[in-house]
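Q:
My hope is that you can spare some time for a protein that puzzles me. I hope you can help me see how the letters and the tokens relate. Thank you; the sequence and its tokens follow:
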Amino acid sequence: MENKETGQEDQFMQGLRVPLVEEFYTLQGEGYHTGHAAYFIRIGGCDVGCSWCDTKYSWNPELHPPVDIHDIVERASEYPAAAVVVTGGEPLMVNMDPLTGLLKEKGITTFLETSGAYELTGTWDWICLSPKKNMPPAGTIYQKADELKVIIAREADLQWAVENSRLVSEHCKLYLQPEWSRREKILPLVIEYAKENPEWGISLQAHKYMHIP
């Protein structure tokens, strides 16, 4: 007889169920698509371990119930934007092929927010890559990224941003995003850098300023 935990892991690997942290309809708050409506699906599980992460509650997938992807897609399809952002945690710890396949069948535009630390799965209209030093991106995701968003917590992170910008395609949008808890100190530095290096834009966590999810 199949062990219950083993069966659940198999479903995660197959992508038929996902450890769902939360789902909600709101406005995109960061990066290129800031201000546009989308349905957010937050997937549980992440071992990247950023000290400044504002969604640490999503790290342990065992704390979040496995949910059938058909149910998630049905709920997402009820909203007018026809756009879904899959985020985490680190969503690529789960096979995203089945979920995105169902979303595309519904005519929904798919957006991914990832550190890139795991192999890319899924069919995506837009990939936002936010690389982290402790678990750098794997595979060929750099060349598939539509948007590079680097979190800046200290001046040394600017060099990390430059190193990553050399690996993406020439069409990839480049963004520096001040780490929220240090934004008052970091923002002047980022502003000056963007003025001197205009290939970079600045991403602010606008949803926090607007007090929305």
